[in-house]
Design brief:
Chain lengths: 128, 263
């Protein structure tokens, strides 16, 4: 046990290094605020409740994709509002949310996700 | 146990073999009945096309088709023929119908251009080989569809298709798109396969495929392409198929093409 001191120092250094990502991010949540999103001005609500859309829009889009491509379906009826919408990212979603930079990308950057929707789907204003 | 003689052992083995031989087909029939019933019950369409080769001899008719299709679906125009992408285009008669092209073809067919596109086969070879079900035969309308979200670009389908109807995106197609890009139809990314979709998106809206519509707007192009439902005996394609002698590409491949040619 002659190396007791060295071992303890080594262990402390090890623990500090391993837990660095944890304590480095302590309090980081208070320092950042959710992104400010540009919402459509002339609309009162999205196709479903805002909370549902925030949490589940990706699942909904996947269901739309399967319904349109696999089954050839066309319309979606809103569970919350009973309204009928065409299942189309470009024609329905981006018709209102027409500023991808200030809506989609701003939030995806904040959440650190990189969806590949726009590798193929065309933003209406990006046709040049 | 060991005192069982050779004779009784053979008897038992023989009975077991007969029993197995009789039982298995019955078991198989019993198991497959529900599947056959489900397939028979589905009253599904089969979209089909009849191409009048003679009416498509004029360049204007064929280029109007290709242009309308490629415009509608944001198909890039890539000059390098090794990397080009096409949904509907022209090939010489001899290349389209290698099993029909003998040395004494009439001048009306010899080296003449014929419109080709995906045949939306009844037994599509491309569908059998796709490992991700990115391409499949849609039950309700018989279209051989593609789901670009699922395509991993393995190109098995391209190897399987006897008609060369599929193109691979060797590079990002966007720089080669005609401007303005049509936002209604997604473009593709590098690394996916694409082909004619019989204008599934237009059919959903009750419209004819873009190529068929385009021929109608060309003087003399009326009737060059006829589109309709093969499962509906009174449809225009069925009427035409009853009246005129038609051929399909590579009948012997057994894929059951649903694009027919009047020659």
């Amino acid at each position: 046990m002659r190396d007791k001191g060295r071992i303890i120092v080594g262990l402390v250094v090890f623990v500090v290094l391993v837990t660095y990502p944890l304590w480095n991010n302590l309090g980081a949540a208070e320092n950042t605020s959710p992104p400010e999103l540009a919402l459509p001005k002339d609309k009162t609500h999205c196709i479903e409740e805002k909370e549902y859309m925030t949490a589940n829009h990706m699942d909904l889009l996947n269901k739309w994709r399967d319904a349109v491509v696999r089954n050839g379906d066309r319309y979606y009826t809103s569970q919350s509002f009973g309204e009928r919408y065409e299942m189309s990212l470009t024609k329905t979603c981006m018709n209102c949310h027409n500023d991808r930079e200030k809506f989609c990308i701003r939030c995806h950057d904040y959440a650190n996700v990189q969806p590949s929707c726009w590798g193929c789907h065309v933003e209406p204003k990006e046709t040049e | 146990m060991m005192n069982e003689d050779r004779r009784s052992f053979l008897k038992k083995t023989g009975r077991a073999a007969v029993g197995l031989g009789l039982g298995l087909p019955i078991l198989e029939a019993a198991c497959s009945r529900p599947r056959a019933g489900a397939a028979g019950a589905a009253s599904s369409r089969q979209w089909a096309m009849v191409i009048d080769v003679e009416k498509c001899l004029r360049d204007e008719v064929r280029s109007a088709c290709a242009q309308a299709c490629h415009r509608a679906h944001n198909v890039p125009r890539i000059p390098d023929s090794e990397e080009e992408v096409k949904w509907i285009w022209s090939e010489d008669f001899e290349a389209v119908f290698p099993d029909q092209a003998h040395a004494h073809l009439p001048d009306s067919l010899k080296d003449k251009p014929v419109l080709v596109l995906c045949n939306h086969c009844t037994h599509p070879a491309c569908v059998k080989v796709c490992p991700t079900k990115a391409t499949w035969k849609r039950e309700k309308d018989g279209i051989v569809m593609m789901d670009m979200h699922r395509c991993i670009g393995c190109r098995y389908c391209m190897a399987a298709c006897p008609y060369g109807a599929r193109s691979f995106n060797w590079q990002d197609p966007r720089p080669y798109l005609e401007r303005p890009i049509r936002p209604e139809f997604p473009t593709r990314e590098k690394g996916v396969v694409e082909k004619c979709n019989f204008c599934a998106e237009r059919l959903r809206d009750g419209r004819e495929p873009a190529c068929v519509e385009a021929t109608k707007n060309v003087p003399g192009g009326e009737g060059a392409l006829t589109f309709g439902d093969l499962s509906e005996p009174n449809s225009n394609v069925c009427a035409l198929l009853r009246k005129r002698r038609t051929i399909v590409r590579k009948l012997s491949a057994g894929t059951g093409p649903n694009v027919f040619y009047i020659v």
